Every structure is written in structure tokens, then in C-alpha cells.
Amino acid sequence: VPPTITLLTPIGLFNTSSSTLTFTFNTTDNDYQGMVCFINISQGDALQQSIGPLNITPSQAHSNVSSSLSSGTYSWSVNCTDYSGNFQQSSANTLTVDIIAPTFVDGTLSNNSDAPLTGTVLRVGINVSENLFNISAVRLFINVSGATDNEVNITRDIPNNTSVNLSYFLSSSLVGKLLNVTFEANDTLGNKRISSSLVLRVSAISLF
Fold first, then answer.
1. d(CA 73, CA 187)
2. What is this structure's pTM?
3. Amino acid 206: pLDDT
């Protein structure tokens, strides 16, 4: 009688931002001497990694670590042969690895004024794209004269490969200050990228 194989983790349709994964499965068999198994990781029809041979004791969960998986969608399965020569191939679970942060398109960081005035709204925009998943949030940071991590605006659930425009009101307290403007984009798995910066000096609004 062939052994039975149950895939435990990663579960089907699992998504991760880690290139290192632990694959765990369980087996049962009426041949208690044990079996030899292989963990097979594929992309499409191409086998990427085969972990084994693994000497397995039936009815015990077994785990092995696979490293250096690049971004992409994979399927993993297990095949085992017991000591009586009976062979079994498991079903396959699908998983996706995304270790690439969203990308800002070079040269698209822009603003509505190179000499912004107090009492006006500064509008800045940038194009952003994502490798495999959605863009969960794009944040606008405006740091004044050396300050850091000053988040002033945010937009969420951005379509892939789109232009993002965010605004910030310039109060009178910013006269003569240098503004360091950057964007931060996060995908749904937590990968993060920060854009290049745009530096602007704020001027006082003219009353005449």
C-alpha cells in the first residue's frame, strides 16, 4: 500500500516577502520501517529545487528549509517511496514569493512650483509600479530643515503602474525653510521603497 502524504506548510495560495521558507509535511504508512521522500519546488513545469533524499519516519511531521527563492509563483509537492517500494506523489500547494519593493519611475518626481509660497498648497506627484502584488500605501514625507520622518499625507490601495499626487499646505511658519520632499511606497507584503528627494525653499507670499 502506498504511503499517504499531507502537506502542512506553506498552505495553498501562501504569500510571503521572505526568500527562505520552511516546508512541512506528514506521512502515514503501514510499513513502519520508514520511507524516502523528496520535497519538489517548481515554477510552471520547471523544477527549481529538490530537497532530499529525506529518511522519514511515518506519522511524524517533517520540516526542511529552502533558501534563495527569487520573486515569483511556485508550487511545491512531496513524493515518497516506502521500504516496500510503494511510491506516492502528493498534491501541490501554490505559493508566491515577492521580495521586490515597489518601484518609482525615474524622472517622474514633480511639483506644481519650484518656488512655493506660504499660504498655498504644494502638490507633488510621482509614478509608482509594483512587481507582483498591489501597492497598499504611498506616503508623502516633507522634512523641514533637517527633520526626519515627517509624514504629511497618505493614499492607500493604489492601482499598479499609476501616478500618485499628494498635497501639503504651506503655513507662514515655513518662510525661508528648505523642504526635503520624498515618497515612500509599500506593497501588500510589506516591501518598502523610498523615492529620491526634491528640495525646495519656501518664500513668503506677496501681497502686492
1. 16
2. 0.84
3. 57
